Amino acid sequence: MRIITPQEVAVQTQNKYLGVLVAAKFARFVNEFPRDRSVDFEEKLTTRALDELVQAHLKYKLVRRRRQEV
Q1: How far is the C-alpha of 12 from the C-alpha of 16, rounded, in Å?
Q2: Closest residue by Cα to residue 62 from 4, 19, 9, 11
Q3: Which domain range does residue 41 map to?
Q4: E strand segments, the chain
Q5: What is the C-alpha radius of gyration for the chain, rounded to an integer number of angstroms?
Q6: What is the distance between the alpha carbons of residues 70 and 63, in angstroms, rounded to a whole number?
Q7: Residue 67 domain-assigned (yes or no)
Q8: CA geometry: angle at 13 spanning 12 and 17, to 5°?
Q9: I need a surface site. Which of 24, 29, 51, 66 has the fewest CB within 10 A?
Q10: How many Cα atoms occupy the beta-carbon half-sphere of 15 within 13 Å?
Q11: What's the confidence (pLDDT) of residue 39?
């Protein structure tokens, strides 16, 4: 198993916190797809998502939140 450091994540994103959020969102997206349950040696989805992010296979876009009028 490969260890992904926060510095590797920060290279692909502006900071390590944003990188973790992007990887978590991608892992949740991948989790919605059906998987073959007979394969037990598959790596975790979060590990796969972080690996995809570090290898620059993930593209993301930041969207500013709208301010709610009171």
Answers
A1: 9
A2: 19
A3: 6-54
A4: none
A5: 15
A6: 21
A7: no
A8: 125
A9: 66
A10: 2
A11: 59
Model confidence, pTM = 0.76
Residues 19/13, Cβ–Cβ less than 8 Å: yes
In the chain, the number of structural domains is 1
Q: In this structure, is residue 26 part of a structural domain?
A: yes
68 located within any domain = no
Residue given tokens 């709610």 in the structure block: 68
Taking the C-alpha atoms of 43, 44, 47 and 52 in order, what is their torsion angle to the nearest 10 degrees?
70
Per-residue pLDDT, 43: 81
14-67 tens-digit pLDDT: 899 999 999 999 999 988 888 776 555 578 888 889 999 999 998 989 888 888
**Alpha-carbon torsion (63, 52, 40, 5), positive or negative:** negative
